[in-house]
Amino acid sequence: MQRLFLSSRKVLTGREFHRWNRCFSHAAQKEASSLHDNGVAAADVVIPIPKIPHFDYSPPPYEGPSADEILAKRKEYLSPSMFCFYNKPLNVVDGKRQYLYDDTGRRYLDAFGGIATVCCGHCHPDVVDAIVTQTKRLQHSTILYLNRAIADFAEALASKLPGNLKVVFFTNSGTEANELAMMIARLYTGCHDIISLRNAYHGNAAGTMGATAQCNWKFNVVQTGVHHAQNPDPYRGVFGSDGEKYARDVQEIIDFGTSGSVAAFISEAIQGVGGIVELAPGYLPAAYSSVKKAGGLCIADEVQSGFGRTGSHFWGFETQGVVPDIVTMAKGIGNGIPLGAVVTTPEIAEVLTRRSYFNTFGGNPVCTAAGLAVLKVIEKEKLQENAFVVGSYLKDRLTALKDKYEVIGDVRGRGLMLGVELVTDRHLKTPAKAETLHIMDQMKDLGVLIGKGGYHGNVFRITPPLCFNKEDADFLVDALDYSMAKM
Ligand SMILES: Cc1ncc(COP(=O)(O)O)c(C=O)c1O
Q1: CB-based burial of residue 61 (10 Å sphere; 0-12 exposed, 13-18 middle, 19+ buried)?
Q2: Whole domain around residue 432: which residue ranges?
Q3: Residue 55 in domain
């Protein structure tokens, strides 16, 4: 039987091989015909090995334990639930701008950005300076005393939000921010029911796990009061890109699944963990309208799509022209410092005065000093504009690659939040899981670190630091091209 080795764990059977081979034969034929036009024999053409763009920096030598030693410690002392990318996990020891370095000093292009977190670039000097300066002066105080860091950052953050969204609560993570937002909505409305979207990821604590809607991220514990609406997924959804049609499900949930009143609707504008699914145009205005009529608040989860990542806008919800009642954020807000926030209106914020609400580290001076530095870097270096220009260029190049390889089912997203979905059959949209893993490993060997997501684990997630440039984009696409051609 004909067999193809895809990775050390996956061997394709004969039938699987034929399906896989079919995906690439189309590309091979196209390549061959263009070569014949140029009078060159197909067999003579070799795609050159892509080279990482030049970058003038050498990290200090690494003198720590080897990857194997760290892995052994991790296995012995850390939760068995922790997982690593790659057949041979990477020991990352240094970072500079859009690049990471392993323990041998080898440089990699970071196209995942610590899961859409490192927005200014690794170890940005302004952010590092702000952290070090504040740490040397005062590392922790709690909000029981005054300190300028939390106040200055809250003011700067509020200035980036529309309408009356100007009261900020700081948290330590995205999960905490969403937990708080959901509780605020329940307190404000006196209702319990919350509507979220299927395929969403909003965190993994008691309430947020309820809002998260992918079974592989949900444990079998009590999760109450969340209804999951049909996902307005333009690629896999039944209504294609007609956002208003999907939004009817929100109204139906309100009509048939609740008392007629709800606490909130929560959604990402572009689902990150769900595989870079940009909600169908027109969805949010229609869904928000139903929720508002039912007395609910609209929560925008900007944990991944905020801080200029979408390029066209500073916040993801702005791409659909809506103004939420509550905005939650984390990841990019601190360029890697543990920090999250909930921003809402003064009237809604008032509900937390009914009891004592306190968070020991929320608004910590070091974290908020870092947050302020991040905002300044995004503005000073025009990172949102860069995300737009480079992201559009990268998306065009990825879309062109889709014509070459049938395994690419969809290219989507905006700015530097892009997704490439792999399928073994374009018509059936059969997820190409093993191929995704294999190509990821190949890309790593070529020097490109890319993310993965989606319910089926068959979507490449491209969410690099926002200082990513066109040469980086070319390198990424060339590495993808090379890896696919070699399959
Ligand atoms: C959209 C979204 N919301 C919330 C979270 C939870 O954030 P954290 O992991 O910081 O708790 C995530 C994490 O990936 C996320 O992508």
Answers
A1: exposed
A2: 67-119+383-485
A3: no
Among 381, 405, 438, identify where a domain stops: 381
301 lines ligand 1 (CB under 6 A): yes
HSE value, Cβ hemisphere, 13 Å, CA-based, for 20: 22
Angle between helices 283-293 and 243-257 (to 10 degrees): 20
Give the model's pLDDT for residue 27.
Answer: 38
Ligand 1 atom closest to the Cα of residue 338 is 10
Mean pLDDT along residues 452-478: 98
Nearest CA to ligand 1 atom 1: 303
Is 242 part of a structural domain of the chain? yes
Residue 309 in contact with ligand 1 by CB distance below 6 A: no
| 49-58 confidence digits (pLDDT tens) | 999 999 999 9
What whole-number distance in Å separates Cα of residue 379 and Cα of residue 214?
35
Cα separation, 451 vs 476, whole angstroms: 12
171 C-alpha to ligand 1 centroid (Å): 12
Residues 367, 168: Cα–Cα separation, whole Å: 14
For 8-12, 233-237, 289-293, 358-362, which range has the lowest pLDDT when averaged over its residues?
8-12
Check residue 7 and give its pLDDT: 35
117-173, pLDDT tens digit by residue?
A: 999 999 999 999 999 999 999 999 999 999 999 999 999 999 999 999 999 999 999
Q: Whose CA is nearest to atom 8 of ligand 1?
A: 174
Residue pair 231/160 in contact (Cβ under 8 Å)? The answer is no
Looking at the structure, tell me whether residues 315 and 191 fall in a common domain: yes
Give the residue-averaged pLDDT of 79-93.
Answer: 96
Is the distance from the beta carbon of residue 407 to the nearest atom of ligand 1 less than 6 Å? no
134 with 245, same domain: the answer is yes
Say if ligand 1 is within 6 A of residue 201 CB.
Answer: yes
Q: What pLDDT sits at residue 329?
A: 98
96 and 158 co-located in one domain: no
In 3D space, the residue among 298, 292, 289, 299 whose CA is nearest the CA of residue 328 turns out to be 299
Alpha carbon distance 478, 468 (integer Å): 15
Q: CATH number of the domain that 214 lies in?
A: 3.40.640.10
The backbone torsions φ and ψ at residue 462, rounded to the nearest 5 degrees and listed phi first, read -115, 100
Confirm if 431 and 457 have CB atoms less than 8 A apart: yes
The verdict on the CB of residue 328 being under 6 Å from ligand 1 is no
* Ligand 1 centroid to residue 331 C-alpha, Å: 8
CA 307–ligand 1 middle distance (angstroms)? 14
Give the whole-angstrom CA distance, residue 376 versus residue 363.
Answer: 18
Q: How do beta strands 408-414 and 430-431 pair?
A: unpaired
